[in-house]
Structure formats: structure tokens, C-alpha cells
Amino acid sequence: AELLTIGQRRGAGVAVADRAGEKQYVLSRDPKTFEVTVGTQEDLLSAGVDIIQVSTTRDIKYPIKIEVQPRAHGKTYSATWESPERIIFDEKQIRIAPGQTAACYVGNECIGSGIAV
Hints:
By secondary structure, the protein is mainly beta. The protein is 3% helix and 50% strand. The chain has a 6-stranded antiparallel β-barrel. A two-stranded antiparallel sheet has the order 1-2.
């Protein structure tokens, strides 16, 4: 379970579809109990992300419209940084795995980041 990531399908032993024909993905994992929860891609969608260890490059007045990049070298998504600990996506996105960094931009300027929980 400790080697699986949220959203993983291949190599997770869940690559086959369920009885309804939908592909299954890792939704959550508990490395202490080795319990893994799987579900559909729709189950992976999230309206936002909670973050910790927040770092900012300037004073921020919340809420603020941002582009958030939740995966290294990945796409950015329109969002609102609601509070130092909460980012809300404009449209639901695939859940950010705990431990990933969410980098927050206004234009080309990175104004801060935090670690997903």
C-alpha cells in the first residue's frame, strides 16, 4: 500500500474494470493497515485541496484568484485560494495526493505553495 499513489491504476492490481465495466483507480491508502480503497475516475474528483506548511512570497489577502499547479511539470488549474489552508478549484479536478506540492500563481508570479494533506 505504501508504494501506491492516489489515482494510480497500472501496477496497482486494479487495472481491470469492475463488473459495470468502469476502470478502477486508487482513491486512498493506509500504509499502516495496508488497506487500499479503489473506485471510478469520477470518485477521484475533488472540489479543492487542504494544504499545510504554507509558504508565500508576499502578503496575500484571501480569497484570491490563482492558477494552481498541483503536480510537478503538470497543468495549472483555475482556482481560488480561500484561506491559507484551503484551495478551491473552479472545476473539480483529480484529487491531489497527500504530500504533493500545490504551487500557486498569479500570472507568471509564484505567490506561494503548500503541501497537500
